[in-house]
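Sequence, structure tokens reproduced for reference:
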Amino acid sequence: MKELDNLIEGTFGAKPQKKSGFNFDDLISIVSEVMGSASPLINEEAIPKGAVYDASKTYDINLIPMPQLSELEWGTLNTPKDGGTRSSSDPRTQLSQYMSNIGGTGLRGKIEALNRFYSGEMAPEDFSSQSDKISKYLSYLVVYKTLTSIFTGFNASSAGFLFEPFLAIMLDAETGQQIPAAGADTIADFTIEKGSRPISLKAYTHGKLNVGGSFRQLVDDLTGPNPVMEYIAVTKEMEGDKGNPMSVSGKLHFKSFNFTLENMPDIIFNVSGKKHKNILELPRIFWDSKIVDMARDEDFLEQLKTPKSSAVDTEKLFGKYEEFVRAAFAASDIDSIADAVIEDFYEFVADRETGNYLNVGGSHLKAAKTVMPSEKRKAWANFINQWPVVTDNPDEPSYQDIIPILQAANGKWLKLLNRQPKGTARGEKTKQLKYQSADKTYARLKQLQKMDLDTYKTALKYLRGVVFNDQFELSGNSLDKNIASVDGDNLFSYGKYYVGTIVVGRNNIQQVLERCINELNTSILDIFASLRGLTDSINAYVADGLEDDRLITDPSSGAQAEAQNIDKKTGEIVEK
């Protein structure tokens, strides 16, 4: 850091009077030159086994460095556009480096390691050397401070978005990454182990946990490439003045369980409340003795599809339209051509299956304010061409003869459409499918699991909750009472439902810092203090419009003095 001292001293040391020679470019030059030639602060051979605590100095948690809080930077694995690796100043790189020093394996192991440090139970065998000890102590303090900042300095929504990549990196510093919420095709919030292990994170106030989400998306995930969806539930038990984040402290309670392809029906059936069990209902056809063969037939599966919520029953509506046309022609003297008119209608005007007008857009099944909008006029043009405009032959009706009859039928048709509720097709189809109760469905799904896995997967995709895109919901109380009773393998990634608790809060971290002073070598804390003072002085100088040179030259608190202290303390570490 001596280069920084020399640069500042060279700029201000011999300055007889204030002038405008030191500007923003000079500041950028100082930072870039020093960062480009910085030397390691710690020499393996130089760190003393013990450190002397200077009781005259006060160290607070503001001296603990902290990586920049950034959801986007933390959550992605992107490398620079020109290749290579991310810089050491990159927020994700910084957080990953600190996280890599946290002991333990998996979430339970990490929490246990943090708590051992917090309670002062780390043993000499936890460190390979004195410098390793200092590095790990700082890393634990940084992680605690960062976690506290997330949950005490942000609202619930922002804290949740920051906590996702934080936890991803904590579990996998190399490949853990957040899944962007926009356009995500999974219920997971982040992945670890190179994307092969998806995890959904839920954070709630203690006592108000509710694990839920899209049942359709959950089934899509479990029937896809990763048939396991890990859930980590965190409840926050905080106290203090919410308007003063500095006073807030508390506990984070971690719990976890896994949805798997096999146990999903067990969890929904045994843990969901009665109100939400109906998502576990299956069409009656899945009890057919030939269902294994039927489920492989694409035509059969097509018949099981349920229309959209806004769809109408096309077949039923066209039946009514034909009824109106036949009645209108029956009331005339040319009722013998009613069948021909209906036949031409389907051939030249509207598609019998969808109700859409042929080749022109629009639909014959949608209500309209006018009898003949532009779409209808275009659609009927080809129909009109099939009939003579006028004729003298009474046995050969013209279009002029049949148009008033069609208008009469169409008038009744429009009145029907205006009264027709949306979603009638879905309602009719639901009745046809005859969904069975959750109790019967649960038993049948267990049978299908044993009979044929592919048929079982197909059945899951036709559950009522998937078809209607309902939400599943598991309350915290029910999970506490019932999740352990679910049978099957791989229910818990960390041995059991309750994983552990982490204490957070600035006052708590301060207590840990005070206990660690003698272990950390106070020269390092002095360096952090001077770095902070150096940064504050330069920021204030820039904010003041580069006018108050005392912020740089003051012998006790200016940037130059802080740089000299950094140089001195660095020398003390390296030379010992």
Notes: The two ends are 17 Å apart (CA to CA).
